[in-house]
Structure formats: structure tokens, C-alpha cells
């Protein structure tokens, strides 16, 4: 059996990439979420967690021994050097986790979902990139409703994520999600049928 090719799926906050990912899964496509991999590599008992504690002390642990993400985020966001150290520790490990999970795929193609597909360089693990895009005003509205957050908070997140142009520059396929869910699902199905005709992600 030929090895599945890898589709990278990304999109800004509130673009609807989770809904798109969900429907691909319902269609039987093997899917790995980079956010989940990022959590797996720092679970208790994993070497990465021990290294983080060694560097920052017990203050980065919750009472139950799991990583206190909020505390760690505070520490590294104030200090560029610490942030780089953390990224150089975690990015390769996250990459390995993702690769292992993708290797288990039995569908003709597999999907790597990552909000930071472009920024983290994870797009290099894929043969094709699908960007879910939405007008910024719609992203703002959706995210404010979903996360109960203020417009300022959402705008701050939008600024950190790769700008739209940068993301779209890496896209082989763009799905503009500005209608209802039924329409979105039909677009996913259309793409899925197209992807099944591809070898190695290219026509």
C-alpha cells in the first residue's frame, strides 16, 4: 500500500478550521492535531517536562504535577531568550510526535492540523496546504462569541499569528468560510473527493 501523503490544514483564529477538520475526520481521514501533540510532549513522565522544571523550577508545575501552562507562558513571553530555549526544546519533540501519529494513517491521505503551520515550519512536513480563511470581522465576531473574549484580546491573538498574506502565500487550496455550516461541509466533501484523486498531494 502506498504511504499516505500529508495535507497541512491551517487558518487564523475563528476561521473555522476546527469545523473543517471535524468534517474531514467524519469522512474517514486520519488527522493529527499539532496542539494535541504539543500537550503530549509535556505530560508528566516525559523528558521535556523534567527539562522545563529543571530550568524554571517547581513554580511551573500544578499541584498534581502537570505543567502550569499559564505560568510558563508568563515566564517565556517576558524573556526572548527563554522563549527560544523552550521552542528549541519543544518544536523537534512535537515534530516527532506528529510524525509518529501520521505514520499510523491508513487513509489515502492524512491531515496535520496546526494553527501555526506556517510560523512553526510544520508546513515542511506536508505535501500540500489547505488554508481556511475568513474575513477578519467575521473571525473577530466568531472568536468573541466562542471564547467570551474582548475585541482587544482577539485582535492581540490575530497579530501574533502569521498574517493572512503569509498564510495564503503557502496555500495550495483556500477555503473561504463565510457562509453556513452546510455549505462548509459540502466544500470539504468537494475537496476530499479531489484529494482522493491525487498522488503525493499533487495533481
TrEMBL record:
<keyword id="KW-0547">Nucleotide-binding</keyword>
<comment type="pathway">
    <text>Cofactor biosynthesis; coenzyme A biosynthesis; CoA from (R)-pantothenate: step 5/5.</text>
</comment>
<comment type="function">
    <text>Catalyzes the phosphorylation of the 3'-hydroxyl group of dephosphocoenzyme A to form coenzyme A.</text>
</comment>
<dbReference type="InterPro" id="IPR027417">
    <property type="entry name" value="P-loop_NTPase"/>
</dbReference>
<dbReference type="GO" id="GO:0015937">
    <property type="term" value="P:coenzyme A biosynthetic process"/>
</dbReference>
<dbReference type="Pfam" id="PF01121">
    <property type="entry name" value="CoaE"/>
</dbReference>
<dbReference type="InterPro" id="IPR001977">
    <property type="entry name" value="Depp_CoAkinase"/>
</dbReference>
<dbReference type="GO" id="GO:0005737">
    <property type="term" value="C:cytoplasm"/>
</dbReference>
<feature type="binding site">
    <location>
        <begin position="14"/>
        <end position="19"/>
    </location>
    <ligand>
        <name>ATP</name>
    </ligand>
</feature>
<dbReference type="GO" id="GO:0005524">
    <property type="term" value="F:ATP binding"/>
</dbReference>
<keyword id="KW-0418">Kinase</keyword>
<keyword id="KW-0173">Coenzyme A biosynthesis</keyword>
<protein>
    <recommendedName>
        <fullName>Dephospho-CoA kinase</fullName>
        <ecNumber>2.7.1.24</ecNumber>
    </recommendedName>
</protein>
<keyword id="KW-0963">Cytoplasm</keyword>
<comment type="similarity">
    <text>Belongs to the CoaE family.</text>
</comment>
<dbReference type="GO" id="GO:0004140">
    <property type="term" value="F:dephospho-CoA kinase activity"/>
</dbReference>
<keyword id="KW-0808">Transferase</keyword>
<keyword id="KW-0067">ATP-binding</keyword>
Amino acid at each position: 500500500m502506498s504511504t499516505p501523503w500529508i495535507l497541512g490544514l491551517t487558518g487564523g483564529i475563528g476561521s473555522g478550521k476546527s469545523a473543517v477538520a471535524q468534517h474531514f475526520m467524519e469522512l474517514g481521514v486520519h488527522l493529527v492535531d499539532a496542539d494535541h501533540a504539543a500537550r503530549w510532549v509535556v505530560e508528566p513522565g516525559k523528558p521535556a517536562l523534567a527539562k522545563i522544571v529543571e530550568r524554571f523550577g517547581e513554580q511551573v508545575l500544578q499541584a498534581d504535577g502537570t505543567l502550569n501552562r499559564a505560568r510558563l507562558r508568563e515566564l517565556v513571553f517576558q524573556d526572548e531568550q527563554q522563549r527560544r530555549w523552550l521552542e528549541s526544546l519543544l518544536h523537534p519533540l512535537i515534530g516527532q510526535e506528529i510524525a509518529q501519529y501520521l505514520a499510523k494513517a491508513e487513509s489515502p491521505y492524512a491531515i496535520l492540523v496546526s494553527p501555526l503551520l506556517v510560523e512553526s515550519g510544520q508546513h515542511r512536513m506536508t505535501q500540500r496546504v489547505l488554508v481556511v480563511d475568513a474575513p477578519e470581522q467575521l473571525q473577530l465576531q466568531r472568536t468573541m462569541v466562542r471564547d467570551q473574549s474582548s475585541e482587544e484580546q482577539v485582535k492581540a491573538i490575530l497579530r501574533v499569528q502569521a498574517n493572512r498574506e503569509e498564510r495564503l502565500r503557502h496555500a495550495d487550496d483556500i477555503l473561504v468560510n463565510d457562509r453556513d455550516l452546510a455549505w462548509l461541509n459540502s466544500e470539504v466533501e468537494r475537496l476530499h473527493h479531489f484529494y482522493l484523486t491525487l498522488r503525493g498531494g499533487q495533481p
